[in-house]
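Researcher: We're teaching a course module on how sequence relates to structure. For the next exercise, students receive a sequence and then see the predicted structure as C-alpha cells, so they can try to spot secondary structure elements on their own. Here is the exercise chain.
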Amino acid sequence: MRRLQSLQLFAEVARRESFAAAARELGVTPSTVAKAVSRLEKALHLRLFHRTTRRVKLTSDGERLFARSQRVIEELEFLEAEALGITDQPTGLLRLDLPIVFGRQIVVPLLAKMALKHPELQLDVRLSDAFVDLVEEGVDLAVRIGPMSDSGLVARRIAQQQWILCAAPSYLAIHGHPADLRALVSHRAIVFRMPTTGRDQAWHFRAEGEVHTVRPPSHVRFTDGETMARAVELGMGIAQLPNYMVDQSIADGRLVELLAGYRPPSTPIHAVMPANRMVPGRVRTLLDALYQLDAQPLGSASASASASAPI
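Model: And here is the predicted structure for the students to work with:
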C-alpha cells in the first residue's frame, strides 16, 4: 500500500509538473510528496524527474512509468476493494469534469443525494466548458454536450438537450417578433463565445426537413450560459439557449419562445470515461443516476432516480 501511495503521488506530480501543485491537489504537504517520490526512485533505482527551481519534468524513465501508472493504480485499487467486498459500493474519491451550467443545475443535485446516501464517497468536481484530457487530469467521468468524435473515450448517452430561441417580453415590445429565419438579421443577438475556440456559437434551426445554420451578427457575447439567460431576461436581445436553462422562465412569463416551429434536432449529452478502465462502484452509481435523465425532461432532471442500464 505504501508503494501504491508513492505511485499515486508520483502520477500527480507528473500531471502537474510541480510537487507543490500535486500536494495541493491531494491535500498533503509538499514534503510528503517529495519523500514519497524519492522512496519510489530509490526502490526502482531510477531517476523519474528532472528538477529545477520552477518546475519538474519527467525523465525518459519517468515518462514510461507514468504511461503505465494509471492502469496499474486503478487495478490495484480495484483488487483492494474486491478483497474488502466493496467493489459495488460508492466509496473513495470520484473526480468529475462537468459543463458549468449543466453540471450546476442537473448533475450537482444528483451528487448531493449520492453524498447523503453514501457518506464514504468523496467528490472532486470541476466545472468548465473547456474540454480536458481525462487521462492526464485523472478524471473518472466527464459530461460532454454535442456529437462525440472518435476520441478513444467510452461514451454513453445520458440525455438530450433542446435548443430554444427566446426573448423577454420587454424586448419584443420594442423590436417585435421575428416572423421567420430571414427576420433574425434585424434583431439584436446574444451569443455564446466558445471557450475552446474563441468563436461565436452558431444558431441552428430545422425547416422543411433540413437543418440550417445561422450566424447572427452578435451585439453581445458571453462565455457563461447563465449570464446569457439573465441578459435575455433583461431585454438585451434574443438568444438560443438550452431548454433546462429557460423552461422555468418561459413558464413564468419572463421569457417567450420564438420560432418554435423551427426548433433544431436535439443535441445528445454523453457521459464519457477513459477506455480500458475498470468501473468502480462510485462511478457506476453515478452512471445509474445519469442514465435516468434520458427518461425525463431535463428541466425536472434534478429529481432523483435510482436507475438501471449498467455500463
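Model: If you want an answer key for the exercise: The chain has ten helices and 14 strands. Confidence is low (pLDDT under 50) at residues 300-311.
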